[in-house]
Amino acid sequence: MSEVSTKKICEENLMSQEMSEEIVAVRDMVNRFMQAEVVPVMNGYETRGEFPRELIRKAGEAGLYGAVFPESVGGSNMGYLAATVIQEEMARNDVRFSSCNNQQGSTCPSCIYLGGTTEQVTKYVPNLIAGKTIGMMSLTESGGGSDAEGNMKAFARRDGDVYRITGQKMWASMANETDVGVLFAKTDRDAGAKGVTAFIVQPKKYPGWKAEPIAMHGLSNALRTNVLFLDDFVVPVEDRLGEEGEGFKIIMRTLQAGRLTVAGKALGVARACFEDAVRYANERVLRGQPIGRLQMIQSEIAEMAIAIEASRVLVYKAAQMMDDSQPSNRIAAIAKYHASQTAKLCADKAQQIFGGYGLAKEYRVSWLKSYADLFFTGEGSANVQKIMIAEDALGYKMADRHHGKTGLRDIRKDDVAADLSKS
């Protein structure tokens, strides 16, 4: 057995000591699934530009999207740490496919679970986390990213027993394929964030929806993000989430878990870059020895290893705090910020170690770099996370000031099962 293989086994054993047997089993299951079902075929989907609906269905059947959701809606109720490990391992194996996790197992079904009625939750969430229907969550607009609610222009006009939504959205991932999604629009133009309302949307059922994929350098050609045009798009009143004006609290609570999702994927990308760099440094020979023997290469490898271990501690801590129902907005922001920084650092250093090959499509380092950049922005940019962290530290605005005060459902307490038992 090589030194590298022995080292990898030792690292996996160390990680296993920090996890319960159940979480270790989940991690191993995800790796087996990805290696058997996704990795061998994903390049084909990318070449064809074909949406991997069948792979999403298989992932749903395997339980990869339901870790945080209770059994009453088809989840496994394993919690946020399990979900984070799933995200990490999926991204480590093929981050392109893991990009659908938010829509299937995080932000989209979470919005519905947190803000929906029992009827809405039981109608939509089980099929989303089972991979039977394709999800989507659309918040951002071209003029409002970090202040999406305050600058929102999309408007939902009440027209009898339906709403008609007009406007434009940006970066709506999978909006060109979605069956059931969540979209945010103003119902009161003058009320700022308090005028935002959340809606369950069904583009294949109602008119007025047009999604156009955006050309993105280095990102998936199979799972696309879109610009979304809404022209009197119809939403029945019964598909509104909560009351008018409650969209802001729904999305803020959802994005807390969404940051953890992105942090887990960023950690997976960092590990993928690190593992590829270590392998290449041991295989690439210069002047009769592997380049891994060179001190400059060793310095890069060491910095990557240090950053990954620090990020792992933060990300797992945030997940565990969320599992324990502790105030977690601050730690989720810290974990997301650090993990996204680590992903960028590891991707950059891996490309330097690969040299010119780091830009060649045959090596995944070339597109891992693009995903590292994506996670630096997704679910709140790095600067937004820093503002939140700094204002909390300075005592200006506590990051966890809304903990336990939103009046929304608690996924970890299975409020839906309690509601069903009363009916």
Structural description of this entry:
This protein is α+β, with helices and mostly antiparallel strands. It folds into 3 domains: 3-129, Acyl-CoA dehydrogenase/oxidase, N-terminal domain (Butyryl-Coa Dehydrogenase, subunit A, domain 1), CATH 1.10.540.10; 137-245, Butyryl-CoA Dehydrogenase, subunit A, domain 2; 249-413, Butyryl-CoA Dehydrogenase, subunit A, domain 3, CATH 1.20.140. It is 53% helix and 12% strand. It contains 13 helices and 10 strands. It has helices spanning 3-17, 21-48, 53-61, 80-98, 101-105, 107-115, 118-129, 247-283, 295-323, 329-354, 365-377, 382-394, 415-422, and strands spanning 137-138, 155-159, 162-169, 181-186, 196-201, 209-213, 226-236, 240-241, 285-286, 289-290. Helix 2 packs parallel to helix 4 (80-98) and helix 4 crosses helix 9 (295-323). The longest helix is centred in the middle third of the chain and has 37 residues, at 247-283.
Produce a short descriptive summary.
Residues 20-132 form the Acyl-CoA dehydrogenase/oxidase N-terminal domain. Residues 245-393 form the Acyl-CoA dehydrogenase/oxidase C-terminal domain. The protein is an alpha+beta fold and 423 residues long.
